[in-house]
Amino acid sequence: MIQECHMKARVRYAPSPTGLQHIGSVRTALFNYLFARSVGGTFILRLEDTDRTRSSDVFVKNLYDTFKWLGFYWDEGPDVGGPVGPYTQSERFALYREHAERLVGLGKAYYCFCADDKGARKDEPEEERGEADAQAPAGFGYQRTCRNMDPAEASRRSSSGEPHVIRLKIPLDGVTGFDDLLLGRIEWKNADVNPDPVLLKSDGFPTYHLANVVDDHLMGITHVMRAQEWIPSAPLHMIMYEAFGWEPPKLCHLPMVHGEDGHKLSKRHGATAVDEFRKKGYLEAALINYVAMLGCSYEDGRDIFSLDDLSRLFSIDHINKAPAVFDYAKLEWFNGQYIRMLSDAQLVERITPFMIDASLVWSPPNEQEEAVLLGAAPLVKERLKYLSDAPEALRFLFLAPELPPLSDFVPKKFDTARTALALSAARDLLLTVDVSNHDATEAASRAKAEELGIKLGDLLLPLRVAVTGTRVSPPLFQSIAVLGTAKAVARADKAIAALKAAD
RNA sequence: GUCCCCUUCGUCUAGUGGUUAGGACACCGGGUUUUCAUCCCGGCAACGGGAGUUCAAUUCUCCCAGGGGAUGCCA
User: Fold this and answer.
1) Residues with Cβ < 8 Å from A237, sequence gap 6 or more?
2) CB 3.0 to 4.6 Å from A458: which of A4, A97, A99, A454, for a disulfide?
3) Is the CB of A153 under 7 A from strand B?
4) Which of A71, A47, A371, A356 has the alpha carbon at shortest distance from A212?
5) Can you tell me which residue has its alpha carbon closest to the C1' of nucleotide B5?
6) CA neighbours within 13 Å on the CB side: how many for A208?
7) What is the 3-state secondary structure (H, E, C) of A448-480?
8) Which domains does chain A have, with CATH numbers?
9) Residue nearest to nucleotide B73 (CA to C1')
C-alpha cells in the first residue's frame, strides 16, 4: 500500500533565483532527489521568481550550471518541460490572482488597503526595529485592520484601482497542525499563527505562501521536503489547503545546516556557493557525499557513498532531527578520498582546467604536455587536497623554478660548501643511472650516500630543491623521470654554481 | 517578547531498559618513508541538568536550562 503510494511520489526543488546556488539549498534539492529516486518517484524543478526586484537570469543560469556539474537533474522543469508546466512562476502570473480572488469569494481572504509600512521596515536600522518590536502592543504582526471591511466596499475600492493586497484570514481561534514525516505532530493555536499574511502583493505577484500552495497542488506534489526554517509557515499553508478544499502534501522538515558558531550557514563561515567549491577544486562526488551525510547516516562504519548508493539507501528514518554543523575539514577529507579514487587519466582530465588557468599548459594541452600530466598524475594523486593544488605542485615540470634562497638547499648540520659537494655528487649520479628505473636509481643513491657518509635525505635534499625549486615535492626520482634528466642536470648545475659563488 | 523545533566525544554520527557507549573527521603520539603526502598502529574525548517510572535509564515520561529558527507586500 505504502509502496504503491510512493510509486506516484512527486517532489520538487523550488529555489528562488535571487542568488548563487547555496550549498544548503542544494542539500535540500539532493534529499528531494534521493527521496524521489529511492521510491521511484519524480523530481521536479520549479522556479519561484516572484520577487521581481531580486530575481535574475544570471542566477537561473547559475542554477542550471550547478546541477549539470553536480550531475543530478530534475525529471520535469523549465528547461526540460513536463506535463504540468510552465515551471516558472512568473509565467503562471494569472493563476495566482485567480486563486487569491477565489479565496476572497469564499470569505477566506480579503482585500487590504493598508500602506506598506511593514515592508519599509526592513530598511530601518536593526536597533530601531528591535525597539519597535519591544514596544508593540499585545499581539504581533499585522493588526487585521481591513479584515472586517464591508466586502462591497472592498470590492469597489479595489476595482476603482486603489492599490491593495490580498490577505489570508487566519481563524481567530482553534488549532492548526500537521504530522511531519520526520518530527511527528506539530500544532499551533491559531492565535499564535502569523496574523493574516499577504497572499497577493500590490504588484499582482503572489507571495511565496500562495504560489507555493497553488503550484504544489496544481503540479501534483505529494511530498514537500524543505528546511526546518519553514516550519512556522506550515500552519498557514495548511489553512490555505483547507480553505481551497485541497488535500495537502506530506510535509518533512529537514534539519538545518549551521556554521561552527551554531548559526545558519552563511558566507561568514566560508564558502557557501556551490560555484566556489567547484572553483576551489572540489569533486562533485565528494561534495554530494559529504552533504548527504549531514544529518544522515546509513551503514555504521561506512562513509563513502556514491550518488547511486544514496539513491538506493535513502530513507527518511535515517535522517536526524538536530541541526548539523558544516565541517570544512571533513569535506576536505572526503575530497582527498575521491581524488585518490580517480584513475590517472581521470585526474589529468580534472586538473587540466586548473593547469590552463595557471598558464602552465596550452588550452588544450599539446601532446607533450598531456604526456607530462599523465606521468605526473600518480605522483600528486595522494598529495592533492583540492584540484586547485595541482598547478603549484606541478609547476616545476613546465617552468624552470627561480633559484630559491640558498639556505633552502642546505640540509641540517651542513654548510654551503658541503651542500655543493652533495649536490654535485647527486648531479653526477643522475648521468649514470636510468631514472625511469626507480629501484635501481634508489639503490645507486643509497650507495652514493653511504660512500659519502651522509644520509640519503641529505644527499637528495639539495637536488630536490634545485630541480623543483622547493623542499617539498613529489618523489624526486619519478619527478625527474617525468621532467627529463637533461633539465634536471641543468638546474643542478645552476644551483651548484650559485652555491659555490656564495662560498 | 511570543511561538515552534532541537539536545550522545570539539565536529558528523551509531546504539541499547542491563554495552568497556562503537565508528569517522579533527587533534596528539608512534611506525613506514628520499621531503611532503598517503598508508598502518595507538591515544585523547560524549549520553545538558533535575525529578519520575523501573530491580535497572544514555535509552521511557515530565519540568528546566541551553542552542537554533520564525515572527516581511524575501523566499
Assistant:
1) A209, A212, A213, A248
2) A454
3) no
4) A47
5) A228
6) 9
7) HHHHHCCCHHHHHHHHHHHHHCCCCCCCHHHHH
8) 276-397 (1.10.1160.10), 406-502 (1.10.10.350)
9) A201
Cβ atoms A77, A44 nearer than 8 A: yes
ipTM above 0.90, yes or no: yes
From first to last of the 503 residues of chain A, give the pLDDT tens digit.
Answer: 344 444 589 999 999 999 999 999 999 999 999 999 999 999 999 999 999 999 999 999 999 999 999 999 999 999 999 999 899 999 999 999 999 999 999 999 999 998 876 444 444 443 333 444 444 444 578 888 889 999 999 999 999 999 999 999 999 999 999 999 999 999 999 999 999 999 999 999 999 999 999 999 999 999 999 999 999 999 999 999 999 999 999 999 999 999 999 999 989 899 999 999 999 999 999 999 999 999 999 877 789 999 999 999 999 999 999 999 999 999 999 999 999 999 999 999 999 999 999 999 999 999 999 999 999 999 999 999 999 999 999 999 999 999 999 999 999 888 888 999 999 999 999 999 999 999 999 999 999 999 999 999 999 999 999 999 999 999 999 999 999 999 999 999 999 999 888 76
Catalytic residue IDs of A: 267
Residues 6+ apart with CB under 8 A from A428: none
Residue nearest to nucleotide B27 (CA to C1'): A329
**CA geometry: angle A365, A366, A367, nearest 5 deg:** 120
Q: Quickly give A262 CA vs B67 C1' distance in Å.
A: 8
DSSP 8-state code for residue A205:
P
Three-class DSSP category at A501: helix
Q: Is the CB of A16 under 7 A from strand B?
A: yes
Report which secondary-structure segment, H or E, holds A445: helix A438-452
CB A351 within 8 A of CB A390: yes
A472 touches strand B (CB under 7 A): yes
- A94 CA vs B75 C1’ separation (Å): 20
